[in-house]
Amino acid sequence: MEVSPKARNFLWCACTNTLPVRAALKRRQIIEDAHCRCCPNSNETLFHALMGCERIQSLWVDYGCEAMIDGGEDMEFLDLFLKWILAQRIFRQVEDFNSYTQCIYVGLCRPHLSRPNQWCSSPDELVKINANAALNEEGWVGMSAMARDKEGKVLFSVVRRMKAWWPSDVAKAKAIHMAMCWPRKQGLSKVIIESDSQVIISRLSKAAIYYSDLDAILGDIIFLCSDFLFVEFSHVERDGNYVAHHLARVVPLGYEQCWVNHCPSVVCPYVLMDTLSLN
Ligand SMILES: [Zn+2]
Q1: Quick one: DSSP state of residue 52?
Q2: Which of 4, 59, 171, 211 has its CB surrounded by the most CB atoms within 10 Å?
Q3: Which residues are placed with Cβ below 5 angstroms of ligand 1, an ion?
Q4: Per-position pLDDT tens, the chain of length 279
Q5: What spacing in Å lies between the alpha carbon of 55 and ligand 1's midpoint?
Q6: What is the CA 56 to chain-centroid distance, rounded?
Q7: How far away, in angstroms, is 34 Cα from ligand 1 center?
Q8: Taking Cα atoms as reference points, which of 111, 190, 193, 98 lies closest to residue 146?
Q9: Fold that domain 111-277 belongs to in CATH
């Protein structure tokens, strides 16, 4: 088969029903919402993602193949694979997906090139939000986000704690997602989101999304960018993300806790250290 390894991997996952569609990710508690981003009334099952979704159906119609997907949810993708010519269109979609996301989101996500090992404040009217996650052996994941202005003053801090067996990158991406849900509630529309995960920041800055568990979360984060007037993703070395690192270890009252204009007292010394380092 003359296709790229990425397309081959995609086809294998589609035929074995292991593609990380949103319904599958929700079953595994990686995301909370299984709805298709384009069709609010449908869950994104394998059938929906490849055949049922409105966004995809026009592709089938364009190539005069709509009759082939009439089998509804009962149809196995493997059957469809035998109708090979159609699958080629799907490969094309995978190949094109990165350039597509770049075209749409490139204006929002400018790569941040400096990698300081100490925290720097945001310029002018921007708010910097540091995010991080902490995992422990009992399966608890702590996620944190702290927003500060250009003088280092805390605008809000949030902690969420839940049981989940996530790899570190997935937990850090979930923390960024949580961090991006809060600014609008506080009336903030221009933000720099900072994390010590270089992989995640580099992928978000390029809007490079493929098909994996992590990518589903990165896709959700990029989707949230449209709520803002300005978003930049910034990488900082671990030493520069100390505040979020310690905040992620704070146990909230209940599932999630937010402190507006201040932070838990155990984190105050680290905030002070960052503020002093600005001068
Ligand atoms: Zn859909």
Answers
A1: I
A2: 171
A3: 36, 38-39, 53
A4: 667 777 777 888 888 788 888 998 888 888 889 998 888 899 999 888 888 888 888 877 777 777 766 666 666 666 666 565 555 556 556 656 555 555 444 444 444 445 577 899 888 889 999 999 999 888 899 999 999 999 999 999 999 999 998 999 999 999 999 999 999 888 899 999 999 999 999 989 887 777 778 888 998 898 888 888 899 999 999 989 999 999 999 999 999 999 999 999 999 999 999 998 886
A5: 6
A6: 22
A7: 11
A8: 193
A9: Nucleotidyltransferase; domain 5 (3.30.420)
Q: What is the whole-number distance in angstroms between the Cα of residue 77 and the centre of ligand 1?
A: 17
Structure tokens at 188: 């903030």
- Describe the crossing of helices 54-62 and 84-105 by its angle, rounded to 10 degrees: 130
Q: At 75, list the tokens.
A: 């149809």
Name the pairing type of β-strands 140-148 and 154-163.
antiparallel
Q: Residue 249 and residue 161: Cα distance in Å, rounded? A: 9
Q: How far does the centroid of ligand 1 lie from the alpha carbon of residue 20, in Å?
A: 15
**Type of residue found at 218:** L
Amino acid at 269: P
Task: Quote the tokens at residue 128.
Answer: 């910097």
Q: Where are the domains of the chain?
A: 5-105, 111-277
